[in-house]
Design brief:
Elements lengths: L1 H12 L7 E6 L4 H17 L5 E6 L20 H15 L8 E4 L10 H12 L6 E5 L14 E7 L2 E6 L2 E8 H14 L7
Parallel strand pairs: 1-2, 3-4, 4-5
Antiparallel strand pairs: 5-6, 6-7
Helix pairs in contact: 2-3
This protein binds iron/sulfur cluster.
Length: 198
């Protein structure tokens, strides 16, 4: 990263305005490790404003758990799809190119009131076509609302088997039964004109 920063600084000093494509190669052996490698190497530079394009490279034959989608949560039928998904995810995370729904979720802890990973996957499955909409999925009402950042909608555990739904920072549906909470979230998205049929 340091050498790329120095290189881009040099281009700026020389007033050379050519686009810079950040190329990152990972030889890690799991999808998760590659994901972290790609994201840290290129993400920090993008956040510094030092990249105009992304080029991720790996050797798929070196990945030992290729079938595990890991933290991408996205379908990875093959290596091209993994590289493609990861590239767009990094560009979205650094707010360079918004191409899909944005999810913000807490890391979960002892206060978490539902299975965060399973619930996040369920919400993703029905909302992942809503490009640009930001949905927060938070484990508890104690700290969740304060950590939702700039989410447009929030799905927050508010008691055992209970979910409270937010629109921005405002509570709109309190203590909804968790069995119907995803359906209620969809209704809220529809009422808020943030929904489109898939
Ligand atoms: S939002 Fe609540 S459940 Fe999630 S990590 Fe923070 S304290 Fe834990």
């Amino acid at each position: 990263m340091q050498s790329v920063r120095a290189f881009v600084n040099e281009l700026m000093l020389l007033e050379i305005k050519i686009p810079v494509v950040l190329a990152v190669e990972s030889s890690d052996t799991s999808i998760d490790e590659q994901l972290i490698h790609f994201a840290t190497e290129s993400g920090a530079l993008f956040l510094d404003g030092m990249g105009d394009g992304i080029w991720l490279m790996n050797d798929p034959s070196k990945i030992v758990n290729q079938k595990v989608s890991g933290r991408t949560y996205l379908e990875t039928k093959n290596n091209y799809q993994f590289i493609n998904n990861t590239s767009f995810s990094i560009l979205q995370a650094v707010r360079t190119r918004i191409s899909k729904t944005e999810y913000i979720s807490c890391p979960s802890c002892g206060r978490t009131l539902f299975d965060l990973q399973e619930t996040t996957a369920r919400i993703r499955a029905v909302t992942n076509h809503l490009k640009g909409v930001k949905i927060a999925i938070m484990g508890c009402i104690v700290n969740g609302p304060g950590e939702m950042a700039d989410a447009d909608f929030g799905y927050v555990g508010s008691g055992p088997g209970k979910i409270t739904l937010y629109k921005g920072k405002e509570v709109v549906k309190r203590n909804v039964d968790s069995a119907i909470a995803v359906e209620e979230l969809i209704n809220l998205l529809k009422e808020s004109e943030a929904w489109i049929d898939n």
